[in-house]
Specification:
The protein has 168 residues and is an alpha+beta fold. 33% of the residues lie in helices and 21% in strands. The structure holds zinc ion. Zinc ion binds next to loops.
């Protein structure tokens, strides 16, 4: 599960799931299945397969700024890449334009693994954390949608405080 630097192929459906997870990294399998019109079982299978390939779903682009994509590939295609001990390269693509990152990602998707997007830094964390207190969420998170941004709270108290803070 932790072999995030293994090189695997991503198929079209997996790529579409990733596209959705890019918008909201915490979508559930049933929410994704609804959006893509594919059965929940299939989506669950795809998510496990993506996880086995070491793909983390952390996506943080709630704010404007520089985005960083970490892509493990057989080749070094970006200006910033690191040789991995296990073989292959960790390519780092930075841009203020998400579309640009998507483009570089789709160009190499055949033989690479998209690891993570992070805003100004590497954020590889499969753990869901509360957007108010920063604590780990183990229960079902409480969603808070403001505009086109989705926030997550660990409890009702955090939800109320987060709502107050964000609606200022
Ligand atoms: Zn909290």
């Amino acid at each position: 599960m932790e072999s995030r630097s293994s090189v695997s192929k991503i198929n079209n459906l997996e790529y579409e799931v990733l596209q959705l997870l890019k918008e909201d990294s915490r979508l559930s399998a049933s929410e994704i299945s609804e959006k893509l019109g594919v059965s929940r079982v299939t989506i669950s299978r795809i998510i496990s397969s993506l996880k086995e390939k070491g793909i983390k779903f952390t996506v943080e682009f709630y704010e404007e700024g520089e985005f960083t994509a970490f892509i493990v590939a057989k080749t070094c295609f970006s200006s910033e890449c690191y040789n991995l001990i296990e073989g292959g390269y960790m390519n780092i693509v930075r841009s203020n334009n998400l579309e640009e990152i998507h483009k570089s990602l789709s160009n190499v998707q055949k033989d690479s693994v998209f690891v993570s997007y992070g805003k100004k830094g590497l954020k590889i964390s499969p753990k869901l954390v509360c957007d108010y207190c920063g604590g780990e969420i183990n229960e079902k998170p409480i969603k808070l949608k403001i505009g086109n941004k989705i926030y997550y709270a660990c409890c009702n108290t955090c939800y109320t405080l987060l709502k107050k803070k964000k609606s200022k």
